[in-house]
Write a structure and sequence with these properties.
This protein is mainly alpha-helical and 223 residues long. It has six helices and four strands; from the N terminus they run ααβαββαβαα.
Length: 223
């Protein structure tokens, strides 16, 4: 059996077996949808020591506290916002089904773009009913790898940042160039929790898939 024939058989199996599994699924199967009742998340783990519980409570308070540049904005008396940011607090992006979760039904980033006089444009990949998103650029302007998160907004124009003229990243151009990767904030947070060795393995697997795709006629290279 030639190498090409073996490869053809493997590909045929991969393409066929999932289809057979779907066909064989009982006709009465139904997605139950989100479960009802309490979220079962957002609180501390059981059996914490007094010190651990105090640390959790302190962290949760900070997680949900809104920040402004100098503390002068009502409802956002914590300082230190900017110069770039994705939202004024962590909990706004991670609130469903409870604090620490994923995006809420309405995206708070839309209002954040122009809050207290900010002159940011809402990037094309955000929508009022869409998920909260973060943006990463694949490459730097000089062609070297980037991969870092780029804050969606700047504090320029805000009433608590008078004189700031920092430009917002040009997301429209980067999206058009295919240089922007936008992900749900919850997914990005989870990937950041992986140890370096796991991230390296995932990256190598991804690069191998891209290289394999490039060798198959009719499949455009992916990034």
């Amino acid at each position: 059996m030639t190498g090409k024939l073996r490869l053809s058989i493997v590909i045929l199996c991969l393409l066929t077996f999932p289809t057979l599994l779907v066909i064989a699924a009982p006709a009465t199967s139904q997605d139950p949808g989100p479960r009802g009742g309490p979220a079962g998340a957002g609180g501390p783990l059981p059996n914490l020591t007094a010190g651990q519980l105090a640390a959790f409570t302190d962290g949760a308070d900070d997680f949900n506290t809104s920040h402004s540049v100098d503390g002068s904005v009502p409802g956002a008396d914590a300082t230190g916002l900017g110069p770039t940011f994705n939202l004024e607090n962590c909990g706004g992006c991670h609130s469903a089904p409870n604090v620490g979760g994923t995006s809420p039904a309405l995206n708070p980033q839309i209002a954040s773009a122009t809050a207290v006089g900010a002159n940011n444009e809402v990037p094309s990949f955000l929508s009022p009913q869409g998920p909260v998103r973060e943006a990463r650029f694949i490459l730097n302007p000089d062609g070297t790898p980037d991969g870092g998160v780029h804050g969606l907004f700047t504090i320029a124009g805000r009433s608590d940042a008078r004189g700031c003229k920092l430009k917002q990243p040009d997301f429209a151009t980067e999206v058009q160039r295919g240089n922007a990767i936008t992900v749900n904030a919850y997914v990005d947070a989870l990937s950041g929790m992986l140890p370096p060795e796991s991230r390296d393995i995932v990256q190598r697997q991804y690069e191998a898939l891209v290289e394999a795709d490039a060798r198959i006629p009719g499949i455009a290279p992916q990034r």
